[in-house]
Amino acid sequence: MAALERDLGVRLLERRTTSLQATPQGTRFYQRALGVLAEYHEAIAEARGQTETPAGLIRVNAPAAFGQFRLNAMLAPFLAQYPKVDIKLIEHTETIQTQGRYRVNNALAIRESLAAGGGIGLCPLWLVQDLLDDVTLTRVLPQWHGQPQPLHLLSPSRRYQPLRARLLLDYLVEQIALLPGYNAS
């Protein structure tokens, strides 16, 4: 450990007579090293052909409403098909300036407000298609559409990507294309 600290030029461990504790730099170094080791082991497994059974954790970041309202239902069949894969869905928020007497920055709150007769609003079709289908909501400007909402499926790297991640990305591309408001092109 002392040789590693000398090479790095930082103290990684706080040494006391009765204990050792990682310094903040040591904790960060350890976390990064774990990632490097995980990629190394994935690369070895892929090179040896051991990635034929997808297994392990996949972290998925999505807007809260899209994750709750659509991704939850999509991910259940995927998890049933690949029982050794775990998914951690993470509910991310963006703030946008708006004008009006009543402003809501949460898609589910927009949905509730519109369904309760709170006025008109602009929202993604995937969020309200069922309310339009059962005539709870009515389109007031059917010839007008908002800007298309981009959706990106991102992963840290395609290089040595675990089979579980490749399978999930392919599955989500297929399923999201079937949602109202997303045209497969």
What does this structure look like?
The protein is mainly alpha-helical and 185 residues long. It has two domains: 1-50, Winged helix-like DNA-binding domain superfamily/Winged helix DNA-binding domain (Arc Repressor Mutant, subunit A, Orthogonal Bundle), CATH 1.10.10.10; 52-185, D-Maltodextrin-Binding Protein, domain 2 (3-Layer(aba) Sandwich), CATH 3.40.190. It contains six helices and four strands; from the N terminus they run αββαβαβααα. It is elongated and about 70 Å long.
Helical fraction equals 40-55%
Helices and strands, in order, run as: HEEHEHEHHH
Oligomer: single chain
Q: Quote the beta fraction.
A: 5-15%
How would you describe the shape? elongated
Strand ordering within the main sheet: 1-2
How far is it from the N-terminal to the C-terminal residue, by CA?
Answer: 54 Å
Class based on secondary structure composition and strand pairing: mainly alpha
The CATH class of the largest domain turns out to be: Alpha Beta
Q: Could you tell me the number of beta strands?
A: 4
The main β sheet shows up as: 2 strands, antiparallel
CATH topology of the largest domain: D-Maltodextrin-Binding Protein, domain 2
